[in-house]
Amino acid sequence: MPVAAGVPPIHFGVHELRSGSPDGARADFEQMLAQLASATNPNVRMIAVNPGDWGIDAFAGDLGGAITVWQSKYFMPKITTSQSQQIRESLTNALKAAAANGHTIELWILCIPSSMDGPEAKW
């Protein structure tokens, strides 16, 4: 089915429609990202959401060695200043947890359902 000009081919708001709540949308979005990441790396695993998740939503690699991390943040439609701070804190926490638990983060991939302009992407 053709998509009209100016209409995004994917609308991430569908996660809230499917799950019925913003919290459910976050979990649904995270699950989708893990499935997409698995398409590029079959060894992707998810970490249960809790204070012991080490700032990791999904990862590939060895938790005793080097890993690639996918961090999901369901921030729509734009990222606010407080949300950008949450993203920075997530990265900082992931790096601290890596140092404390014996693994290194080779690549940290932020996954968000919105586009960033130049100044937003710069930080």
Describe the structure.
This protein has about 120 residues and is α+β, with helices and mostly antiparallel strands. The chain has one domain: 3-Layer(aba) Sandwich (Trna Endonuclease, Chain: A, domain 1). It is about 40% helix and about 15% strand. It is built from four helices and four strands; from the N terminus they run ααβββαβα. The protein has helices spanning about 15-20, 20-40, 80-100, 120; strands at about 45, 60, 65-70, 105-110. The chain has a four-stranded mixed sheet. The radius of gyration is 15 Å and the shape is globular.
What structural class do the secondary elements suggest? alpha+beta
Overall shape: it is globular
How many β-strand runs? Answer: 4
Q: Domains counted in the coordinates: how many?
A: 1
Question: In the CATH scheme, what's the topology name?
Answer: Trna Endonuclease, Chain: A, domain 1
Q: What is the arithmetic mean of pLDDT? A: 87
Helix and strand layout, with pairings?
Blueprint: H1 14-19, H2 22-40, E1 45-46, E2 58-61, E3 66-72, H3 81-101, E4 104-111, H4 118-122
Parallel strand pairs: 3-4
Antiparallel strand pairs: 1-2, 2-3
Brief synopsis:
This protein has helices at residues 14-19, 22-40, 81-101, 118-122; strands spanning 45-46, 58-61, 66-72, 104-111. With 123 residues, it is α+β, with helices and mostly antiparallel strands.
